[in-house]
Amino acid sequence: MKILEIDAGNTRIKWRLLEYTNQQKWGITSGFVFSPALESELPEALCQQLHELKKENIKVVRTSNVRGEGFADSLSLFCKKHFSINVNYARVSAELAGLKNAYQNFEALGVDRWLAMLSAYRSAQSAVCIVDCGSAITIDLINAEGQHEGGFIVPGLQLMQRSLGEHTANLKYQPESTGNIEPGKNTAEAIDHGILNMALGMLEKVHRERGADLCWYLCGGDAAALSSFIKWQHEVKPELVMDGLEIACAYSGLSVKER
């Protein structure tokens, strides 16, 4: 059986096609497009990529969507037209697969954070810290008993860069990451290195005060950029959100909405 998984984030939309045979999972192909979350329609580049999958006889489409109802409507229409199937949209639960949500209003937690936590907790089988380095940097803490202890959300690296460019008169520059955290010798370096240091400083504080004994997993588009400066043991897991889709969809009555 072939399953299409889609992780529709605020800046990047990722997808992968899997095949399940004899209880084993195989990756067939994958892709992504960059697209601002303000665009509610399916990006043309994504339509072209998904259209190439018509010949694959896809049986299931499951999705993590933080881009809003407009995107979900467009994706559902596309899949009905081209694959003749409905889309399964993951939802946040109060408790699922041994993981307990810390939010009193549990549905207010971002579904991408929830799916990443599901996958990370199952993988670690112990207390774990998940850092998603995307449009925002999110940090979530889970104890050994599966209780989500809450988290932190701050602007991501690129969002901080754009904010400085858009809200200052004399800091116009072309952002180009140098992968360095030393004092900058020009404005572009000073901003780039400063933003990296801000993000790393927060991670170091969490590690020092709460996370020294945790497994640490990083995901998101800027995970590799931050990983190279993190001094403690950690692992970059780029597919945490989509891996969480498989867990959520196993509990379809609780955690999936079909449309």
From TrEMBL:
Substrate binds at residues 103, 110-113, 187. GO terms for cellular component: cytoplasm. InterPro entries: ATPase_NBD, Type_III_PanK. GO terms for molecular function: ATP binding; metal ion binding; pantothenate kinase activity. It comes from the Bacteria. Pathway: Cofactor biosynthesis; coenzyme A biosynthesis; CoA from (R)-pantothenate: step 1/5. Gene3D superfamilies: 3.30.420.40. The active site is at residue 112. Keywords: ATP-binding, Coenzyme A biosynthesis, Cytoplasm, Kinase, Metal-binding, Nucleotide-binding, Potassium, Transferase. K(+) binds at residue 132. Catalyzes the phosphorylation of pantothenate (Pan), the first step in CoA biosynthesis. HAMAP family: Pantothen_kinase_3. This is Type III pantothenate kinase. It comes from SAR86 cluster bacterium.
